Amino acid sequence: MSPHPSAPRIRKSPEQVRSAVHQAVIDLLSDPEGADLSIPAIAQRAGVNHTSVYRRWGSRDALLADVVTTRLELDSPLTDTGSLRGDLIAWMRAGVASIHTVEGRALIRAVALSMPSATPARGERRQQFQRRLSSIDNIRQRAAARGESPPPLEEILDQLLAPLYIRAIFSIDPPDTGYPELLVDRLLDDTRARGAA
User: Fold this and answer.
1) Model confidence over 86-104: pLDDT tens digits?
2) Burial 81-97 (b: 16+ CB within 10 A, else e)
3) Cα gap 165→174, rounded to integer Å
4) Rounded to two decimals, what is the model's pTM?
């Protein structure tokens, strides 16, 4: 394992601390040789005191959730294209682009593989990602306001998000073309079929 340089410790604003810690997590996760992802190691890499990290996030899992959610908001913005299909395809295209990057795959694997097995902890993890789930649900609300019939949020997660995460975990790249459209059209076809039944 190659050593990682530490950032010099200088007084930082809360937002600078958050930015430095987020970048430290991404850098450590992207290390092809593996790296120590403990709070002290992250703090050392970021050039901040580990007590600052514990005070702000409380746990490594909460920190990872914040990093992933923030990164997804940057890499996969939920664009309003004027239609449900367009919104979902734009979101999926951004997601596909993200998992083509080392950093994107590493972030998803880190969170997915650290999922807790105990029910109370799973509830806490859902709360950690609630910001992103609420943003995704906005796609449905926009569609309903336009008079469209969006699928339930759980189906969007199962049929669109889950396939991307499985590919990221196992380092399987999606097809070069047409993958977002394939998944979105399959989801919307299922929704229309139920509505017609």
Assistant:
1) 999 999 998 898 888 888 8
2) eeebbebbbbbbbbbbe
3) 11
4) 0.76
